[in-house]
Design a protein that fits this description.
This protein is mainly alpha-helical. The protein has 22 helices and no strands.
Length: about 475
């Protein structure tokens, strides 16, 4: 049916309006298997709100405190985040957005053209599940706020299982509501982010200011002294240096920028320059919000409860709801709920698109509901949120090399002398060049990480580069044969 529309467009004298209407009808309104038509393109403002909302969000209330549990110093945290987030913005602007506006396809359909249907099905399943687990951690974050009025026991840093029926009910209700909003499509996700993100940003700013006051900070030097030269990491955490912070913050969203997942978002952009809007997410969310959340945790660490944990050799609880509530009251509870919501929404939307590629006959609505259900189940288990630094590094490492396949083909296919979209051209179901390039790069650098205890984010870039180079080499060899 999708192929037939191309024939129709060349044989019928149809107006642009009618063409786009027919494409939209066939594509189910989200253009999963066709380029986004001109009439549906969006200005940079749509992306500004979405990225500010998505990245000044639920995870920020966890990641900021988790940095403190690694014993990071002031210089390493503040300067490392400044530069790491800049590298992330540049990756979105000059890789993701550039390729997205050229082809205007989802990541999943773009990969299918290169990899073949069977190979990309495995990737889509892994991608969708990892995004569901990430969205689940956002639901966990929101649940810590909703549970405050019910005197719910908060999950500990070392918890993996649900800790009570109240927790289970709250997570299930939140997950159902968030999934329904995500299932309405990109338009609704974008509108929700635009409405909520200013409230969340204001809440983070207020939390930071109140926390500084609670800490008695009146000068830059006193602010700097909160982290000072750093400390020993908490039990079960590793020590973070400047390079840990810089590289981790660059690749915190590796799957989305160098991994090309946000092709699915930026295909709606009028110009590649919309990629600069990711700076709103990085410097409002991954800079100001992370530091503000870390300040909230710094206040908590001075409390008798936290000191009791430390005296017993345990890591103090990292529960975003109570941290924000302690600073700004009911507004803090509302902000944490909305923050989890605005990150879970687009993440579940992306996961739904991944599942849609596996089950093209199922509507966007239902695949998103499936994704939301998986995310909600994941949200029941606090481990995804409490181990977020490690999980984010892992999912970026797994998925990012597939983005290198798209990037290296786009920029170097002529120099390498290979055919673009080879699986589509040659009618391949399984492109061996892609599989071996990913398997070798993933296997080699994961082995190095485990065997030599190398921080996983440190090997993400080498794995990405090797995967791209091997893809070109193997493609040249296979296509000659």
């Amino acid at each position: 049916k999708i192929i037939s529309i191309n024939d129709q467009l060349t044989t019928k004298n149809m107006s642009q309006f009618n063409i786009e209407e027919e494409i939209e009808e066939i594509a189910g309104g989200e253009f999963e298997r066709v380029p986004v038509p001109a009439s549906k393109l969006k200005s940079w403002k749509s992306f500004l709100g979405m990225y500010a909302g998505e990245h000044a969000a639920g995870t920020e209330f966890v990641i900021g405190p988790l940095f403190l549990t690694t014993g990071v110093s002031a210089f390493d945290l503040i300067v490392g985040l400044l530069l790491g987030n800049l590298l992330a913005v540049l990756s979105w602007r000059f890789l993701t957005a550039e390729i997205a506006v050229k082809y205007r396809l989802t990541l999943y359909y773009q990969l299918e053209k290169i990899c073949g249907k069977n190979l990309v099905t495995g990737y889509n399943l892994a991608n969708g599940l990892l995004f569901c687990f990430l969205a689940g951690s956002m639901i966990t974050v929101s649940a810590t706020a909703v549970g405050i009025p019910f005197n719910m026991e908060m999950p500990k840093l070392t918890d993996t299982m649900p800790n009570g029926m109240t927790w289970v009910i709250i997570v299930l209700v939140l997950g159902a509501v968030i999934s329904l909003v995500a299932s309405k499509g990109y338009e609704t996700v974008s509108k929700a982010a635009n409405w909520m993100s200013p409230v969340i940003v204001l809440a983070f700013l207020a939390c930071g200011i109140v926390a500084l006051n609670q800490l008695g900070v009146k000068s830059l030097s006193e602010f700097w002294d909160i982290w000072g030269e750093g400390s020993e990491p908490f039990p079960g955490q590793i020590k973070y240096t400047f390079w840990h912070v810089l590289i981790w913050s660059w690749f915190a969203n590796a799957a989305m920028h160098v991994g090309m997942s946000d092709l699915s978002v930026f295909r709606f952009a009028k110009k590649a320059s919309s990629g600069w809007t990711t700076a709103a997410g990085m410097y409002v969310g991954h800079y100001m919000a992370w530091i503000a959340a870390a300040l909230l945790y710094a206040v908590y660490l001075k409390s008798p409860e936290a000191q009791g944990f430390l005296a017993n050799g345990e890591a103090p609880t990292v529960a975003p709801g109570p941290l924000a509530h302690n600073a700004i009251g009911v507004f803090g509870i509302i902000a944490v709920v909305l923050a989890g919501w605005t990150t879970a929404n687009p993440t579940i939307y992306r996961a739904g698109l991944a599942f849609q590629a596996i089950m093209p006959k199922v509507s966007t609505f239902w695949v998103t509901i499936i994704a939301g259900t998986v995310a909600t189940i994941a949200g029941l288990f606090p481990a995804f949120a409490m181990k977020l630094l490690g999980f984010v590094a892992l999912y970026g490492f797994i998925l990012a090399p597939f983005g290198a396949i798209i990037v290296f083909e786009h920029f170097f296919h002529k120099q390498a002398g290979i055919v673009k979209n080879y699986a589509e051209v040659a009618n391949l179901k399984f492109n061996r060049a892609v599989f071996f390039a990913w398997a070798i790069s993933f296997g080699l650098f994961y082995f190095i990480s485990v065997q030599f205890n190398v921080f996983l984010s440190f090997v993400t870039l080498p794995a990405w580069l090797l995967c791209g180079v091997l893809f070109l080499v193997f493609s040249k060899w296979i296509q000659k044969g």
